[in-house]
Amino acid sequence: MDTNTTITLWVAFAAGVVSFISPCVLPIIPGFLAYLSGASLGKSEAKRMELFLNSLFFVIGFSIVFAALGVLLNSVLRTVAYGVTEWLSWIGGAIIIFFGLYLMEFFHIPWLEREHKLGAAKKFNSRYLTSLVFGMAFAAGWTPCVGIALGAILGLAVSAPGTAFYLLLAYSLGLGLPFLIVGIFASQAANLINKYAGIVRYVNIVFGAILVVLGILVFTQNLSYIANWSLLNNVLLQK
User: Fold this and answer.
1) pTM of the model
2) How many CA atoms lie within 13 A of 26 on its CB side?
3) Residue by residue, what is the 3-state secondary structure of 159-190?
4) d(Cα 210, Cα 101) in Å, to the nearest integer?
5) How many domains does the chain have?
6) Closest residue by Cα to residue 29 from 68, 59, 49
7) Each residue of 77-132: pLDDT tens digit?
8) Domain that holds residue 100
9) Helical H segments across 45-123, by residue range
10) Which helix (H) or strand (E) holds 225?
11) Cβ–Cβ < 8 Å for 73, 155
């Protein structure tokens, strides 16, 4: 795996984490996972394994959808003619820059900022099945907040179709690990979320700046500069 791919996979993983900590997702996650497992936050210690298993099935649910999307992008775009790849780089780079600037708060779009609530109109007999289905619904577009970081990764996938599956898998991992951690430490996580909620904005701004730089490199088809910079660092370190 080359340096460019490795770095973009880390960016995809970070995008998953940023999706998790978005302001309209993060505050309600502990309570929602407790709701799926049938326990209140106050009783989460007694049902820690139940919370974790429901979190796991929730993560599996959205990971299935993201993995399928990655396979679809890989299959559809990988066979395009070479001349079209230049257009894909322009389109993908523009998408990445757009979402990067959005995270840096250069502009606001009300539709992307409205808060959605996770709720269940119907539960299945199995809580695990309920969690799995809600995970799949979450991936299919439960809230535009998730779409901000995910949209940037899809832009990256469009510009490099061969890595689409791995990019979305890395994104799922970045989004899923925090869910599993909250599932294990639900009550403690709720306290930490309330305590450090103000930091989320600055994390988004920093990640947005990273996306803008990455988007410019993709748009100008100069992503190889990352590999060259990494190689130069290695040479300097060896000296």
Assistant:
1) 0.78
2) 22
3) HCHHHHHHHHHHHHHHHHHHHHHHHHCHHHHH
4) 10
5) 1
6) 59
7) 666 645 566 777 888 889 889 988 988 888 876 655 555 444 444 455 577 888 88
8) 3-238
9) 48-77, 82-103, 110-113
10) helix 224-238
11) no
